Amino acid sequence: MPGERLSSGPVHIHAYVARISVRAGEALDVMVSAAGTSEVEAQLVRLLHGDVHPAGPGFREEEIDCPANGRLAVSWRDVPRGNVLRGTDAGGALLPQERFTLWAYIHPALPGAGVQTLVSYLRDGGEPAGYALCLDEQGCLAFFRHDAQGWRRVLGQPQPVLAHCWYLVTADIDPAGGQVVLASRHLPGRANGLWSRAVPRQDPPDAAGPLEAWTAAPGPGTVLVGGRPAEGGPIECLYNGKIDRFGLIRGGADKGVREALAAGTPLEAARTLAFWDTTAGYGPGGIGDVVRDLGPSSLDLVGVNRPVRGQTGWNWDGCVDSFRLAPEQYGGIEFHDDALADCLWPPTVTLQLSADLRSGVYALRLRHGGVTERAVFCVRPARRSAPICFLLPTATYMAYANGPRSMEGDIGQALMGRSPILARADIEACENNYLFGLSAYDVHRDGAGVCYTSYRRPIFTMQPDYRFPGVAAPWGLGADLSIIAWLEQSGHAYDVITDEDLDREGRAALDGYRVLITGSHAEYASEPMLDAIEDFSAGGGRILYLSGNGLYWVVAFRPEEPWVMEIRRREAGSRAWQCRPGEGYLVTTGEPGGLWRHRNRAPQKLVGVGFASEGMDISVPFRRMPASFAPEVAWILEGVEGELIGDFGLIHGGVVGLEIDRYDAALGSPPGAVVLASSEPLTSNWPLVQEEIFFSHPGLGGDEHPQVRCDMVYFRTANGGAVFSASSIAWAGALPWNDFDNAVSRIMANVVNGFLSDGGLPDITGAADAR
């Protein structure tokens, strides 16, 4: 709920940045909130290694001179969770003195879970006056009034509404005559709700009761949909569920009016005080946050915390699956009381970065006593000079932000093959009901999947030393810093950019670079990102794909709000939740969500490999394949002895682990590619990926199925380009082993040095034939 605070206890420090990527020489706002202290010690640092595994180099960071270093005054900041629509009625048209009717189509998700507001109006200043149509504690339609005594329940229906069913609800209000009448009508269609039309449902009788006349003259007021203003505080009584079109009409809601609304028949324009058409404004490129009022006052409403649009409405017939095809059937706007897209904290400090600052991964480190928080960001160079570009997979960081809650999932421990090992941040997040928002692997309190995630909030999973509890190993930034550490150790000049940069700038973000290196888990990609990588490769760029399960899910960003990412998990893929029927298109761009594979852009076509399996119980080595000894490719494994590669590492003791990819010509792996090595057998805890299982049957585990494997792959591309795919998340964790003196590090050096060379790479036709 808005305004929640952390549970009482010791010092808590939380922070985030306004932009996850900045150039050297630019300024960056950092937002900080703290409880238990009024000041913290601030220090700019460059992050060099995160994994605290005792067999590795340990945690490493370099302190950087910065004017912001030193003591920093801090205070606690509230967290404004929950979706609402908000608007201002400057002329007071929505506080009429004569009889009027408030109506809406609603699809509640959690009736009975406290008072939940559908539509509210509160006068701003002057004599207190306002009203709200709500669901009460029992889930019954109820009318509340606001006066000098605050919000008071005036009337309610005797029977609760049902979850996941559409209703027409009306409140016939006579301020002067002193009466309010509430009515609700179930609107079952063939596809629009949980129940069929064949299931009998008796609507409750109309509820009528006295209403103390309000005498406040019309004046400026605030309209809220999905919540109501609290007494002198934030928004309260947030709604969980969908609302379709809604409005106010002059006069009462007699039987004829309600029949017309139930049939979707437009009312007379002369009777309309306000009509918010939630289907208006849909364009081919998606849907924004503004809900248009087609009434005489044009009181448009604006979404807060990104209410979910493009959802099926009360009249959806199941014959189309996108708002682009039949917008009139997609008026549903979905609200959640635990949604968070932007904490909206004011800046605590502005970092003025030096123009000669090295490109890399940085953080403003904040300390008080034994508590440390780092606000992480990327610094791009003021001018490109390095030949290597490391692509920080920030879209994946956003997807996993503050979760997933593996310790709470019903299959979490079975999936991971181990009991979770919780850190302080995990326990704090759980104790405080995930105050700073959920991950895109979680579901909202009402069970709907979280399709929006943001970095404008504290993200404890993006701390450099964070270890994911379900796998007892680094995940995301902590793993990727092992690649950064290798680049530092090897002495190669490199720049760092983010997924956000690639999404906004496309191919231009990679101009001037010879080699592109991915992070350990580049799972999420937008269309501009995928296009940019493909164009870089086709133009002769050379790629080290060091990821497992990369380029898998479709995501999208708005150019004006790059800190919010949208994802729609459709009917396939290894998914923590699934979109409801008809709701699988991204409203950010209008494109279909789901897997890139199901848009015929499987990662095999771009990097030679694609997702094969995941397992968190063990990591295993690669076994060298015969084709790797061919003269044309032998340079890649030069200096590597024996057939086994990587029976060591900081992630479960091996180089093949967590999530893995394989070569598959049927999905687009180039026929001229060479499989240099394949993984040793895995266990039954490594299942074949879900999208490749048509019938469930025994023998789908890593100890039996031939497609559950990891392949190290190399191939040439157009114009002198090349791709090397390590295909495993655990590759990054093997690089620092034995102070970087190991076979995996040797292969990495061979490939990077070969890709940087001015001469052409050998033709590999003969080696490919050997495969």
Key phrases:
mainly beta; Jelly Rolls; Immunoglobulin-like; nine-stranded mixed beta sheet; 771 residues; elongated; 16-stranded antiparallel beta sheet; DMFA2_C; LamG domain-containing protein; 11 helices
A few lines on this structure:
The chain is mainly β and 771 residues long.
How would the global form be characterised? elongated
Low-confidence stretches: none
Q: Would you tell me which CATH topology of one domain applies? A: Jelly Rolls
Structural class, by secondary structure, is mainly beta
Q: Specify the biggest β-sheet.
A: 16 strands, antiparallel
Distance between the termini: 58 Å
Whole-angstrom Rg = 28 Å
Number of helices: 11
Mean pLDDT: 93
Percent in strands = 25-35%
Protein name: LamG domain-containing protein
Pfam families: DMFA2_C (PF20254)
Organism: Propylenella binzhouense
InterPro entries: DMFA2_C
Characterise the protein shown here.
- The chain has a 16-stranded antiparallel β-sheet that branches. Strands 32-28-33-35-44-43-42-39-40 form a nine-stranded mixed β-sheet. Strands 2, 4, 5, 6, 26 and 27 form a six-stranded mixed β-sheet that branches.
- The radius of gyration is 28 Å and the shape is elongated.
- The chain starts with 11 loop residues before the first strand and ends with a helix.
- Among the domains are: 12-79 and 344-385, Macroglobulin (MG2) domain (Immunoglobulin-like, Sandwich), CATH 2.60.40.1930; 84-335, Jelly Rolls, CATH 2.60.120.200.
- It is mainly beta.
- It comes from Propylenella binzhouense.
- This is LamG domain-containing protein.
- Residues 312-740 form the N,N-dimethylformamidase beta subunit-like C-terminal domain.
